[in-house]
Fold SDR family oxidoreductase.
Amino acid sequence: MTTQIAAPSSFSNLPPSALTDKVVVIFGGTSGIGLSAAIQAKAAGANVIVIGNDRTRAQQAAEKYGFEWRTADVTQSEAVYDALKEIPKVDHLVLLAGTFVAAKVLDGDVTYMRRAFEERVWASVHAIRALNERLSKDGSITFISGVLADRPNAQGTAVLAAASAAMEAFARGLALELAPIRVNTLSPGHVETPLLHKVLGDARDSVLPAMAASTPLKRLGTPEEAGAATVFLMANGWMNGTTLHIDGGVSLI
């Protein structure tokens, strides 16, 4: 099953020039939430650069939607610096890249578990350092965490939950350290993305309905909904140092 992402018809809830001609760089912008955010930012007038770890997918997304594109393995600092080195200025930096790292602490491979932090915390550190003064002072940085930050489980996600919670704390600290650059975190719940389908594998047809039934709204979120929340964090100049939960109320139960 392939999730189809379409650009919304209007952005009447955004200030008319909030993203017009702004440079938006989205790590993880070639699929799922990142791709939807890229499409919507482009529709709102931004100049969008997507960065993914798969060259073919990045090029295809760019050609289809009119983005610029780069490739980088975010766990490799040199690749992050190389992907950003020729961009003169970035108004909004969005860091959504990351895989689903699941392993039990007592018997999981430590090198593998470290990836949860490498893909999130350290990739963000390297991206911010790479851009440095090229980050617009009236722009923003957006991280991603997830419902695990508030609601961990016993299914081998303790390290991933820790990394997710770390991103929220990191954003709050950076909102002060990098001021007046705004720094926020998007915390999505169960969103039906290609990554979720990949994680569930052959079990997805049975697991997805159960996941949907467990939410207050009795459905999963869409990439479009989470992408719109990402655009909101970029476009609203009064959002700073906060975590925006878009989980259909899952964090309440």
